[in-house]
Amino acid sequence: MIDKYDILWYNSNEEHFEEKNILKGFSAMGQIILVASGKGGTGKTTTTANIGAALAERGKLVALVDMDMGLRNLDIVLGLESSIVYDISDVIEGACTLDEALIKDTRYENLYFIPSPQTRGEIALNDEDVKKIWEQLKSRFDYCIVDSAAGVTGGFKYAAMCADTALIVTMPELTAVRDADRAVTVLEDMGIEDIRLIINRVRADMIDKGIMMNMDDCVDMLQIPVAGIVPDDEALVIGALSGKLAVSEENSRAGIAFGNISSRILGENVPVMDFEVKEGFLKRFRKLFVK
Fold first, then answer.
1. Which of 4, 38, 221, 222 has the least CB density, counted as fewest CB within 10 Å?
2. How far is Cα 172 from Cα 226, in angstroms, rounded to an integer?
3. 110, 60 Cβ separation under 8 angstroms
4. Which is more confidently placed, 26 or 148?
5. Beta-carbon neighbour count of residue 105 at 10 Å?
6. Which residue has the higher pLDDT, 240 or 143?
7. Strands across the sheet containing 143-148
8. For residue 44, what are the CA distances in angstroms to 6, 41, 95, 121, 217?
9. Helices 215-222 and 174-189, interaxial angle, to 10°?
10. Angle at which helices 234-242 and 253-265 pack, to 10 degrees?
């Protein structure tokens, strides 16, 4: 049985997993959390929406900001595409106030959303103007969760600007992990020290067959602490099409995983989900929790 919990930090010098609280250092209030990925298709936007909704359900005031200029999708995942009047570029350029651009999610009492422009790609922005927006959001919300563009080009710099923490979303595939490593390097060069990993769309059967990478290999390549592991779940596909979030679906394993990640952000000790796998997968994870 599980009798204690500390999420795992990979120690390459010891070549094994040690028990550490990887979320030590998270501030309880006024946090800007960047959600990034090295490539498209890893589930970054869905991750942003579900973690934000889970935090809002816990009573935290949350702003979700779409910074994928010209390629916004967060509005669709949230089911708020018909509510958009202004976007983040309008706020930065002074065409509207922050309050005019904020859209309140009717399903979650404490959740707000700011879209990115749909028809304008990379736009010329002033660094100081962008910083002012992040400062306003940080002063008004418990958490501002920023959905950046895939990769490290375009408006990535503005999305990462002023971030306190970055969550790197990857899948257990070599190309995704390699591109995630590039994103980690860029964020470190920008001075962001608190970078965490979310391994998304994990399928134990494909790991057992050697099609997907195992968790040890993912963490070994990236050398950053793990914030959560999310199993593949059809609820994510259904939700993306219907505007329903996995965290609101009672039987969604992905929803439970996103809820666990939000709890860890709040500093709570939550055990790693049980994966129905053959001997070998997450073996070293489990041994730390089983008497």
1. 4
2. 13
3. yes
4. 148
5. 21
6. 143
7. 103-104, 111-114, 62-67, 143-148, 31-36, 165-170, 195-202, 226-231
8. 25, 8, 29, 19, 21
9. 30
10. 80
Residue 125 pLDDT class (50, 70, 90 cuts): confident
Closest CA to 74 of 97, 98, 51: 51
Residue 19 pLDDT grade (very low, low, confident, very high; cuts 50, 70, 90): very low
69 Cα distance to chain centroid:
18
- 39, two tokens: 């490539």
The 10s digit of each residue's pLDDT in 235-275 is: 777 776 777 899 988 889 999 999 999 999 999 988 877 76
**What is the pTM for the complete model shown?**
0.84
The Cα 77–Cα 244 span in angstroms is 7
Helix or strand or coil: residue 236?
Answer: helix
Distances in Å between the Cα of 218 and the Cα atoms of 197, 222, 233, 235 are: 10, 6, 20, 24
- Encode 41-58: b = buried (16+ Cβ within 10 Å), e = exposed: ebbbbbbbbbbbbbbbbb
Amino acid at 142: D
| Residues sharing a CB contact under 8 Å with residue 11, sequence separation 6 or more, in sequence order | 17, 18
The one-letter code for the residue type at 282 is: L
Spatial distance between the Cα atoms of 171 and 236, rounded to a whole number of angstroms: 14
Q: How far is CA 35 from the centre of its chain?
A: 4
Nearest to 280 by CA among 210, 198, 222, 230: 210
Q: Which amino acid is at 271?
A: P
What is the per-residue pLDDT across 84-111, written as a single tens digit (0 to 9) for each?
A: 999 998 998 889 999 999 999 999 999 9
